[in-house]
C-alpha cells in the first residue's frame, strides 16, 4: 500500500481548483495526502454521515423531537476545515452543526443524547439539535446570521490575546443576505481581525435557490474589500488546503478573509422539509453519484492503492457499531431533572435544595 | 353544529413535587357555534392555514395593488399558507424575498407607503426581532412624524406564533408584549379559522400597520366551516364566548381553548360560572368589554404562554384594577409561562396548562 501521494490538477477530478477575489495567489494546487490522514478523514466523514442518518431514523420514530437540520452531503467541509486549523483555534457556525460538534471533539454519544434531550447530552439536554457547544466551539446558533458578528468578536479576542489563534465563522447562502453579515465584514476588515468567514453554499436557503435569493451568487466576492476564495466543498483536500491558506493569511495579520465552499445537502432544510418541493430527486441523485465526498475520497484512496477495500469495510463496520451504541445510550439515558428548567438563567443561580420548599417556588406561573 | 377535534399537544399532569411519568392528555379544540354568523354565504371546511390562504386569495382578487412576500412563500410557505397563490396571481404579486427580516419589513413599509397593499410574512415570530427597529421606529411612527403626509397603513405583517409541542427556544415564542409597548401599530391574534380569516382581512383593510400572529399549533388542528367570500371581523373588539357570573377569564390565540376547558372544569367541579373573553386584538385592546365583565363578576384571570414578567397580562391587570378597583373580590390572577427561555424538553411543564389555570381559579374563588 502506498503511504502518501501528491494530489494535483491532473487527476481527472477537479482537485484544488480555486477562484480568487482580490488575491494574487491562492492555496497550493498540490498537496500531499498521507494514508493516515486519508483513513482518518474517511472515518470521520463516515461517522458524521451515519450519525446524521441515525438521527433521521430516530426523528421519524419521534425519539428526537423539535427541529433537526442534517448535515449529510456536506461532511467534507467540516472535516477539511478542521484539518486546516488546530484545536486551539475557534469555530462558530449556524444550526446545521452536528458535524462541527463532532469535529470539534464531542463524542457521538453526547451529540445523540443532546438530540434526544437527555442529561448525558453535551448541553445537558437543554439545548437540543441547534445548541451544542464544546471548547473553542461556540455552537450551534438558531437565528440565521446572528453567529457572524459573534465570530468577529471572538476573532477580536484572539487578536487581543495575541496567541496567534484564528476564528472560523461559518454561515450559509441564505444568511449571506442578512445585514449583520456585512456589518461584521466591515468591523473585521477595519480592525484587521483574524477571522475566516466561510460561506457554506449548499445552493438552497430553506426552499429558495441561490439564484432566486441573491443578486450576486459569487458569495466569495460579497466581502467586497475582503479578499475571497471559492473551492469545491465536496472535496476534503480542497477544503483543507483552502483553510490552511486562509488561516496563514489571518495569522500573518493581514486581516479577515472570506471563503466560499460549494457543497450540497441531501436532506431537506430540516426534518420538517421533505426537500423535494423545490428541487428534483434527479438532482439529488446526481450529486450523490458523482460528487459524494465520502465516495470520492474512498475511490481516490483505493485507486491509488492507499487503502484496501477490506480496511474500508472494517472502518464502516466499526463506525456502524459506534453509532448503534450511541443511539442506544441516547434512547436510554434519563431526561434532565425538572430543577434544570430554572437553572442557568443567570450567573450563579442560588441553590434550590432548601428543606420545605421545592424548585417551582422560585418560578412564578400564577402571579 | 358542534365540531370537536383533537389537537396533538402532550401535556403532563403536574402536582408540584412528584412525577411518576408523563401522562398524555389530549387537548380539545372546540369550534365556535355563534360566530358562524360572521357572514352569510357559502362556507367550506377549512383549517387555519387554509383560512389564511382564503383571506389572501380574496385580497389578491379584489385589490390589484396587493402583493405578498416573505421567505419561501412562492412554493406555498413552510406552513402552506400561500399555496396556489403564485400560480393564480403571478410571480410579480407573490414572491420570495432573501433571508433578511429587517429588509423584508423595511421593504414592506416602503411598498405600503407608495400605495401597495403589502403583506409581509415573517417565517416564525421568533425571527421578527431583526425587524423590530423597522416596525417600532419606522412603521409605527411614520404617520406621526410626517404630520399625516405619509403612512404605511397598507402594511400587514403575518407570522406563525406560539408553542407547538416541540418548538423549543426559537420556534415557540409569543412576542406580542414587546410590540404592545409601541403606539402606532395594531396587534391581532385569532383563535381559529373563522376568526383568522375575518381578522386578517380587517388587518389588511385597516389603515394602520398591523401585525397578525397566527397560532402555529392550530394550523392543522383547528378546522371549522369558513365562509368562502371575504368578510371582516372588527378590530379592537373582544368577544365574549361564554357568559358567566363569578369569574372572568381572558386570553387570546391557543390559550382561549385551554380556558374553555377550564371554564367547563370550574362549572363541573366547583359550581363556578365563568365568563370567557377572547381579546382578539391585543393592541389597541378592548378595555370596555373586559372591564364591564369584571364589574359583573368581580374576579379576573388572564392567561398567556409568554413569560409572566412584562407579559401583556400585566397591562390588562393594571388597567382593570384602576377601573374596577372597588368591584374586585380577589386580586387579579395571571397564569403565564415561566420567566425562562422557552424550553425544549421541559415544554409540558412550562406552558400555562389547564391545571395551573384551574388552580388559580380555585384560589380566587376561595380568597
Automatic annotation (TrEMBL), chain A:
- List, alphabetically, the GO terms of the cellular component aspect: mitochondrial matrix
| Primary location class | mitochondrion
GO molecular function terms here?
metal ion binding; pyruvate dehydrogenase (acetyl-transferring) activity
Report if keyword Mitochondrion is assigned: yes
Q: Where in the cell is it found?
A: Mitochondrion matrix
Which BP terms from GO are recorded?
Answer: glucose metabolic process; pyruvate decarboxylation to acetyl-CoA
* Taxonomic superkingdom: Eukaryota
One matching Pfam family is E1_dh
Quote the CDD domains the UniProt record gives: TPP_E1_PDC_ADC_BCADC
Q: Which cofactor does it need?
A: thiamine diphosphate; Mg(2+)
Give yes or no: UniProt keyword Magnesium.
yes
Q: Which InterPro entries match?
A: DH_E1, PDH_E1_Alpha_Subunit, Pyrv_DH_E1_asu_subgrp-y, THDP-binding
**What residues does the Dehydrogenase E1 component domain cover?**
43-338
State which Enzyme Commission number(s) the record gives.
Answer: 1.2.4.1
* Alphabetically ordered keywords of this record: Carbohydrate metabolism, Glucose metabolism, Magnesium, Metal-binding, Mitochondrion, Oxidoreductase, Phosphoprotein, Pyruvate, Thiamine pyrophosphate, Transit peptide
Which chemical reaction does it catalyze? N(6)-[(R)-lipoyl]-L-lysyl-[protein] + pyruvate + H(+) = N(6)-[(R)-S(8)-acetyldihydrolipoyl]-L-lysyl-[protein] + CO2
What does this gene product do?
A: The pyruvate dehydrogenase complex catalyzes the overall conversion of pyruvate to acetyl-CoA and CO(2), and thereby links the glycolytic pathway to the tricarboxylic cycle.
Protein name as it appears in the record: Pyruvate dehydrogenase E1 component subunit alpha
Print the organism lineage: Eukaryota, Metazoa, Chordata, Craniata, Vertebrata
From TrEMBL, chain B:
InterPro entries, per database record: THDP-binding, Transketo_C/PFOR_II, Transketolase-like_Pyr-bd, Transketolase_C
Q: Where is the Transketolase-like pyrimidine-binding domain?
A: 46-221
Chief location bin? mitochondrion
Q: Does the keyword RNA-binding apply?
A: no
SMART domains associated with the record: Transket_pyr
Keyword set for this entry?
A: Mitochondrion, Oxidoreductase, Transit peptide
Per the UniProt entry, the Enzyme Commission number(s) are 1.2.4.4
Report the locations given in the UniProt record.
Answer: Mitochondrion matrix
Q: Which cofactor does it need?
A: thiamine diphosphate
Q: Which GO terms describe its biological process?
A: branched-chain amino acid catabolic process; response to nutrient
Q: Which domain of life is it from?
A: Eukaryota
A GO CC term attached to the entry: mitochondrial matrix
Keyword Nuclease recorded: no
Reaction catalysis annotation: N(6)-[(R)-lipoyl]-L-lysyl-[protein] + 3-methyl-2-oxobutanoate + H(+) = N(6)-[(R)-S(8)-2-methylpropanoyldihydrolipoyl]-L-lysyl-[protein] + CO2
This protein's assembly is summarised as: Heterotetramer of 2 alpha/BCKDHA and 2 beta chains/BCKDHB that forms the branched-chain alpha-keto acid decarboxylase (E1) component of the BCKD complex. The branched-chain alpha-ketoacid dehydrogenase is a large complex composed of three major building blocks E1, E2 and E3. It is organized around E2, a 24-meric cubic core composed of DBT, to which are associated 6 to 12 copies of E1, and approximately 6 copies of the dehydrogenase E3, a DLD dimer.
Functional note = Together with BCKDHA forms the heterotetrameric E1 subunit of the mitochondrial branched-chain alpha-ketoacid dehydrogenase (BCKD) complex. The BCKD complex catalyzes the multi-step oxidative decarboxylation of alpha-ketoacids derived from the branched-chain amino-acids valine, leucine and isoleucine producing CO2 and acyl-CoA which is subsequently utilized to produce energy. The E1 subunit catalyzes the first step with the decarboxylation of the alpha-ketoacid forming an enzyme-product intermediate.
Q: What is this protein called?
A: 2-oxoisovalerate dehydrogenase subunit beta, mitochondrial
Q: Which organism is it from?
A: Cyprinus carpio carpio
Amino acid at each position: 500500500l502506498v503511504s502518501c501521494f501528491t494530489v494535483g490538477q491532473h487527476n481527472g477530478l477537479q482537485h484544488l481548483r480555486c477562484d480568487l477575489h482580490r488575491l494574487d495567489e491562492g492555496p497550493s494546487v498540490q498537496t500531499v495526502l498521507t494514508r493516515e490522514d486519508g483513513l482518518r478523514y474517511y472515518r470521520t466523514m463516515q461517522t458524521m454521515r451515519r450519525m446524521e442518518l441515525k438521527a433521521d431514523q430516530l426523528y421519524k420514530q419521534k425519539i428526537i423531537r423539535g427541529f433537526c437540520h442534517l448535515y449529510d452531503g456536506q461532511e467534507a467541509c467540516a472535516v477539511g476545515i478542521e484539518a486546516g486549523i488546530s484545536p486551539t483555534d475557534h469555530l462558530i457556525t449556524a444550526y446545521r452543526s452536528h458535524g462541527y460538534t463532532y469535529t470539534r471533539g464531542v463524542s457521538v454519544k453526547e451529540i445523540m443524547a443532546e438530540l434526544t434531550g437527555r442529561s448525558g447530552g453535551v448541553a445537558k439536554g437543554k439545548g437540543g439539535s441547534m445548541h451544542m457547544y464544546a471548547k473553542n466551539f461556540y455552537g450551534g446558533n438558531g437565528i440565521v446570521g446572528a453567529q457572524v458578528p459573534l465570530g468577529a468578536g471572538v476573532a477580536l479576542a484572539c487578536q487581543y490575546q495575541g496567541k496567534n489563534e484564528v476564528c472560523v465563522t461559518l454561515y450559509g447562502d441564505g444568511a449571506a443576505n442578512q445585514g449583520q453579515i456585512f456589518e461584521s465584514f466591515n468591523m473585521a476588515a477595519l480592525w484587521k481581525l483574524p477571522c475566516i468567514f466561510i460561506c457554506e453554499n449548499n445552493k438552497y436557503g430553506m426552499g429558495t435557490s441561490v439564484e432566486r435569493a441573491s443578486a450576486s451568487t459569487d458569495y466569495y466576492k460579497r466581502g467586497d474589500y475582503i479578499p475571497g476564495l471559492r473551492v469545491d466543498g465536496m472535496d476534503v483536500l480542497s477544503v483543507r488546503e483552502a483553510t490552511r491558506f486562509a488561516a496563514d493569511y489571518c495569522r500573518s495579520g493581514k486581516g479577515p478573509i472570506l471563503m466560499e465552499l460549494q457543497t450540497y445537502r441531501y436532506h431537506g432544510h430540516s426534518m420538517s422539509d421533505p426537500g423535494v418541493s423545490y428541487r428534483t430527486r434527479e438532482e439529488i441523485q446526481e450529486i450523490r453519484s458523482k460528487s459524494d465526498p465520502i465516495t470520492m475520497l474512498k475511490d481516490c484512496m483505493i485507486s491509488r492503492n492507499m487503502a484496501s477495500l477490506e480496511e474500508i469495510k472494517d472502518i464502516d463496520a466499526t463506525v456502524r457499531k459506534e453509532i448503534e451504541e450511541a443511539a442506544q445510550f441516547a434512547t436510554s439515558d434519563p431526561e434532565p431533572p425538572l430543577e434544570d428548567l430554572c437553572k442557568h438563567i443567570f450567573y450563579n443561580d442560588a441553590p434550590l435544595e432548601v428543606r420545605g420548599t421545592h424548585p417551582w417556588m422560585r418560578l412564578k406561573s400564577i402571579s | 353544529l358542534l365540531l370537536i377535534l383533537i389537537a396533538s399537544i402532550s401535556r403532563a399532569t403536574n402536582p408540584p413535587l412528584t412525577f411518576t411519568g408523563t401522562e398524555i392528555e389530549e387537548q380539545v379544540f372546540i369550534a365556535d357555534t355563534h360566530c358562524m354568523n360572521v357572514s352569510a354565504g357559502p362556507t367550506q371546511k377549512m383549517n387555519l392555514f387554509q383560512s389564511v390562504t382564503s383571506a389572501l386569495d380574496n385580497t389578491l382578487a379584489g385589490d390589484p395593488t396587493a402583493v405578498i412576500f416573505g421567505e419561501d412563500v412562492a412554493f406555498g410557505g413552510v406552513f402552506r399558507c400561500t399555496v396556489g397563490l403564485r400560480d393564480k396571481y403571478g410571480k410579480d404579486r407573490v414572491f420570495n424575498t432573501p433571508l433578511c427580516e429587517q429588509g423584508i419589513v423595511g421593504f414592506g413599509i416602503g411598498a405600503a407607503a407608495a400605495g401597495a397593499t403589502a403583506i409581509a410574512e415573517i417565517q416564525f415570530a421568533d425571527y421578527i426581532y431583526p425587524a423590530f427597529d423597522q416596525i417600532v421606529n419606522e412603521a409605527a411612527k411614520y404617520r406621526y412624524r410626517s404630520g399625516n403626509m405619509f403612512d404605511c397603513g397598507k402594511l400587514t405583517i403575518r407570522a406563525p406564533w406560539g408553542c407547538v409541542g416541540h418548538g423549543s427556544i426559537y420556534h415557540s415564542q409569543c412576542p406580542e408584549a414587546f410590540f404592545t409597548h409601541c403606539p402606532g401599530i395594531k396587534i391581532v391574534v385569532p383563535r381559529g379559522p373563522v376568526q383568522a380569516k375575518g381578522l386578517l382581512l380587517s388587518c389588511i383593510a385597516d389603515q394602520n400597520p398591523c401585525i397578525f400572529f397566527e397560532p402555529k399549533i392550530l394550523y392543522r388542528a383547528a378546522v371549522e366551516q369558513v365562509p368562502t367570500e371575504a368578510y371582516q371581523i372588527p378590530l379592537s373588539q373582544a368577544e365574549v364566548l361564554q357568559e358567566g357570573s363569578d369569574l372572568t377569564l381572558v386570553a387570546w390565540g391557543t390559550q382561549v381553548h385551554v380556558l374553555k376547558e377550564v371554564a367547563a372544569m370550574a362549572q363541573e367541579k366547583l359550581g363556578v360560572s365563568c365568563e370567557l373573553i377572547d381579546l382578539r386584538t391585543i393592541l389597541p385592546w378592548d378595555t370596555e368589554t373586559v372591564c364591564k365583565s369584571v364589574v359583573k363578576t368581580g374576579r379576573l384571570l388572564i392567561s398567556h404562554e409568554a413569560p409572566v414578567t412584562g407579559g401583556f397580562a400585566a397591562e390588562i391587570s393594571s388597567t382593570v384594577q384602576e377601573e374596577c378597583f372597588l368591584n374586585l373580590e380577589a386580586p387579579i390572577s395571571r397564569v403565564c409561562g415561566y420567566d425562562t427561555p422557552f424550553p425544549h424538553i421541559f415544554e409540558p411543564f412550562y406552558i400555562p396548562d389547564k391545571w395551573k389555570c384551574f388552580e388559580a381559579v380555585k384560589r380566587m374563588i376561595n380568597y
